[in-house]
Amino acid sequence: MNVLIKGGSVAESNGLRRTAILAVGTFAVGTDAFILAAFLPDLAAALDVSTASAGAAVTVFATAYALLSPVLATVTAQLPRRALLVTALVVLGLANLGSALATSFAVLLATRVLAAVGAAAFTPNAGAVAAALVRPQARARALAVVVGGLTIATALGVPLGGLIGHWLGWRSALVAVAIVCLLAAAGVAAWVPFLPGSAPVPLATRLAVLRNRSVAKVLPLTVLGMGAAYVVYAYSVPALAGLGIEASDTASVLALYGFGAVAGNFASGFATDRWGARRVLTAGYLVMASALGLMAVLAATGFGAPWIVGALAAAWGAASWCQTPAQQHRLLEAAPQDAGVVVALNASCIYVGIGAGTLLGGAVIEQGTTAVFAVGAAAALLALLYQRSTAR
To answer: Do residues 279 and 338 touch, judged by C-beta distance below 8 A?
Structure first.
């Protein structure tokens, strides 16, 4: 039974179960954001561009998401939440169908921007709806369910998409993502109750928190850290090939990266509460720099047993995604009165970092595997230096 409470929020006994359909949507968003990495060389060959140039498809999606997220939050504030979520998933699904049918790289880039519109409209609102579907005591669990869709996509969605791409072609993998988006849209339409929009908040008001000097110091670290993590990721197929990993085994290595990401994200929450965000971030950047640095050494020496590469990939994934809980914790300490805004800005900075890292990786991938891993390791050390210099 639904119970209406002050502010229009809905608290219901089976709210947590209803949030599962929102997690399916975030799973689709997470898979869509990173799946191109699993078959980038095949996509590049089909659309007659270099692998480095094809990485721009990842950069365009990430940059569009980062820029559009606060804008869409402003212009869609008054729309009913269920209708907004359904529309966002339909847009994301149709964009993936468009990407699957793209006959030129320009068309692919256009459809990736459209996909970013759907993703940027869905993910923040999915979290808000999940919190409204349950009683206050269960909100953290509801948010964890929704965020779980993203982390599961990192662990399973991208590798599974890579397998589909390997056996049936990259276009089929994008069609599969589109189907998941449309199924999630149908589920949201059927199971999520009506929730009204909220009062509009001007974009300038949302961004006013950037005048807080502590917030302004923390956010660049998100860009630097995620940039370091994603210098290699979009080019993981050719990079792992340089370590002796066959294309058919790339999905397994990416799965280990994903499981490491899930473990790192989960462990970071506990470790941040126990030892503090700064120690967690210091450890994370040291692990990332070490893992990517060792991969550079393996590439240079030609010695790379698959189990060693898999272990390093898991460490790389854990270090990449241990950043988010710690960074959010720092932001909430810096601006507790603007919690929703700073978390949304941090999400935008995550995608700015992903786009920038992919762009940097594309600039060096032609120099060889050793170079791209070495640049990733150097970027992680740069993030560590910035973190230490702004620790107070």
So the answer is: no
216 and 141: one domain? Answer: no
Contacts of 371 (CB under 8 A, 6+ apart): 296, 364, 365
Category of 156 on φ-ψ map: left (φ > 0), alpha (ψ -120 to 50) or beta: alpha
Please report whether residue 319 resides in a domain.
yes
244 and 371 fall within a common domain: yes
In degrees rounded to 5, what are phi and psi of residue 80?
-55, 140
Asked if residue 142 lies in contact with residue 130, where contact means CB atoms within 8 angstroms, the answer is yes
Spatial separation of the C-alpha atoms in residues 255 and 306, rounded to whole Å? 13
Taking the complete model, does pTM exceed 0.85, yes or no? Answer: no
Residue 76's domain is classified under what CATH number?
Answer: 1.20.1250.20
Asked if residue 382 lies in contact with residue 85, where contact means CB atoms within 8 angstroms, the answer is: no
pLDDT at position 11:
45
**DSSP E strands: which ranges in the chain?**
2-4, 10-12
Q: Between the CA of residue 338 and those of 66, 275, 284, 332, 335, what are the distances in Å? A: 19, 24, 26, 8, 5
Do residues 69 and 347 touch, judged by C-beta distance below 8 A? yes
Domain that holds residue 351: 205-392
- Rounded Cα distance between 178 and 313, Å, is 28
Res. 203 pLDDT band, cuts 50 70 90:
confident
Bridge partners (DSSP) of residue 12 are 2
Dihedral of the alpha carbons of 330, 266, 346, 225, in degrees to the nearest 10 = 90
pLDDT of residue 135: 77
Cβ pair 234, 37 in contact under 8 A? yes
Determine the 3-state secondary structure of 11 from DSSP. strand
According to DSSP, the residues that pair with 3 across neighbouring strands are: 11
For 313-351, b/e burial (b = at least 16 CB within 10 A) is bbbbbbbbbbbbbbbbbbbbebbeebeebbbbbbbbbbb
| 3-state secondary structure at position 2 | strand
Looking from the CA of 191 toward its CB, the CA atoms found within 13 Å total 19
For the chain, the straight-line distance linking the first and the last C-alpha, in angstroms and rounded, comes to: 48
**Whole-number percent of the chain with pLDDT over 90:** 45
Residue 234 tokens, joined:
């979009």
What is d(CA 306, CA 289) in angstroms, rounded to the nearest whole number?
20
* 392 band by pLDDT with thresholds 50, 70 and 90: low
